[in-house]
């Protein structure tokens, strides 16, 4: 549970956190992302920044994410290796036409289709959203607990995490419940991760015991 003791432990772990969400300049990214989706998101951000169309492109990709939520089988369809180049391009054209998308967005969709990576579109859209959040000075904190937090616990947790966010930046707290944690919590703040769950501690203890046998 997110009591005062747990919040104190969080504070101890997060003191080394670096909220690297600085306002982007023409030659810098607000944060560094990894993986294929991250590389595409970097390229989109740089292109949109040069075209002064960051907000328009962000709206495009938010709309694309909405389509993925509404069309549950879309991701599987786009990952289908049997899709022809023409079918991929048709899928891109449909997405772009529905949105009347920005040129940067259209070019990105075409590039993904050309490279056979439309199956990564949802991940690319999410990665770009992460960049835009950092661009606006928003720091997302994802906290997973074994039990639902009370309003008082949420308030204390928010206050604890806010202390590690740079002045002028906004903390966005997202919580979810995972009973498999047994107790404690898992905290993701920016690009940092701290596992304070009881299940993790039990796993570590079990591994230590196994090594001594």
Automatic annotation (TrEMBL):
<keyword id="KW-0813">Transport</keyword>
<keyword id="KW-0472">Membrane</keyword>
<dbReference type="GO" id="GO:0016020">
    <property type="term" value="C:membrane"/>
</dbReference>
<comment type="similarity">
    <text>Belongs to the ATPase delta chain family.</text>
</comment>
<protein>
    <recommendedName>
        <fullName>ATP synthase peripheral stalk subunit OSCP, mitochondrial</fullName>
    </recommendedName>
</protein>
<keyword id="KW-0066">ATP synthesis</keyword>
<dbReference type="InterPro" id="IPR020781">
    <property type="entry name" value="ATPase_OSCP/d_CS"/>
</dbReference>
<dbReference type="GO" id="GO:0046933">
    <property type="term" value="F:proton-transporting ATP synthase activity, rotational mechanism"/>
</dbReference>
<keyword id="KW-0406">Ion transport</keyword>
<dbReference type="InterPro" id="IPR000711">
    <property type="entry name" value="ATPase_OSCP/dsu"/>
</dbReference>
<dbReference type="InterPro" id="IPR026015">
    <property type="entry name" value="ATP_synth_OSCP/delta_N_sf"/>
</dbReference>
<dbReference type="Pfam" id="PF00213">
    <property type="entry name" value="OSCP"/>
</dbReference>
<keyword id="KW-0375">Hydrogen ion transport</keyword>
<comment type="subunit">
    <text>Component of the ATP synthase complex composed at least of ATP5F1A/subunit alpha, ATP5F1B/subunit beta, ATP5MC1/subunit c (homooctomer), MT-ATP6/subunit a, MT-ATP8/subunit 8, ATP5ME/subunit e, ATP5MF/subunit f, ATP5MG/subunit g, ATP5MK/subunit k, ATP5MJ/subunit j, ATP5F1C/subunit gamma, ATP5F1D/subunit delta, ATP5F1E/subunit epsilon, ATP5PF/subunit F6, ATP5PB/subunit b, ATP5PD/subunit d, ATP5PO/subunit OSCP.</text>
</comment>
């Amino acid at each position: 549970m997110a009591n005062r003791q747990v919040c104190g432990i969080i504070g101890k772990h997060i003191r080394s956190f670096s909220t690297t969400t600085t306002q982007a300049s023409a030659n810098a990214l607000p944060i560094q992302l990894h993986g294929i989706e991250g590389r595409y998101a970097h390229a989109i951000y740089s292109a949109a920044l040069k075209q002064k169309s960051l907000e328009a492109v962000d709206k495009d990709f938010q709309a694309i994410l909405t389509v993925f939520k509404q069309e549950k089988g879309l991701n599987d369809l786009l990952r289908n290796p049997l899709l022809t180049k023409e079918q991929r391009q048709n899928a891109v054209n449909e997405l772009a036409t529905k949105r009347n998308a920005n040129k940067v967005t259209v070019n990105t969709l075409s590039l993904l289709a050309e490279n056979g990576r439309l199956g990564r579109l949802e991940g690319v859209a999410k990665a770009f959203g992460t960049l835009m959040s950092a661009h606006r000075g928003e720091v997302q904190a994802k906290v997973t607990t074994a039990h639902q937090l009370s309003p008082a616990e949420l308030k204390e947790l928010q206050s604890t995490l806010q202390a590690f966010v740079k002045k002028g930046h906004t903390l966005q707290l997202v919580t979810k419940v995972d009973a498999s944690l047994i107790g404690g919590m898992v905290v993701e703040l920016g690009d940092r991760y701290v596992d304070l769950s009881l299940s993790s501690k039990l796993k570590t203890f079990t591994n230590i015991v196994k090594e001594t046998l």
